[in-house]
Amino acid sequence: MPKIVDHDQYRKELLTKCFDLFANKGYASVTMRQIAQEIGVSTGTLYHYFPSKQALFWQLYDEFNERDTASMNAVLNNIHTLQERITAIFDYIAQNEDYFFKQFLITSDFYQQQDRTEILANETLKRNYELNRDFVAKALETDDPAVVNFAMCLATGIMVVRLFEGNVVEYDEQAQLFHKMLTLYLQDVSLHESDELPVS
Amino acid sequence: MPKIVDHDQYRKELLTKCFDLFANKGYASVTMRQIAQEIGVSTGTLYHYFPSKQALFWQLYDEFNERDTASMNAVLNNIHTLQERITAIFDYIAQNEDYFFKQFLITSDFYQQQDRTEILANETLKRNYELNRDFVAKALETDDPAVVNFAMCLATGIMVVRLFEGNVVEYDEQAQLFHKMLTLYLQDVSLHESDELPVS
Amino acid sequence: MPKIVDHDQYRKELLTKCFDLFANKGYASVTMRQIAQEIGVSTGTLYHYFPSKQALFWQLYDEFNERDTASMNAVLNNIHTLQERITAIFDYIAQNEDYFFKQFLITSDFYQQQDRTEILANETLKRNYELNRDFVAKALETDDPAVVNFAMCLATGIMVVRLFEGNVVEYDEQAQLFHKMLTLYLQDVSLHESDELPVS
Amino acid sequence: MPKIVDHDQYRKELLTKCFDLFANKGYASVTMRQIAQEIGVSTGTLYHYFPSKQALFWQLYDEFNERDTASMNAVLNNIHTLQERITAIFDYIAQNEDYFFKQFLITSDFYQQQDRTEILANETLKRNYELNRDFVAKALETDDPAVVNFAMCLATGIMVVRLFEGNVVEYDEQAQLFHKMLTLYLQDVSLHESDELPVS
DNA sequence: TATGAATGAGAATTCATTCAT
DNA sequence: TATGAATGAATTCTCATTCAT
Question: Which fold has domain C7-196?
Answer without folding.
Answer: Tetracycline Repressor; domain 2 (1.10.357)
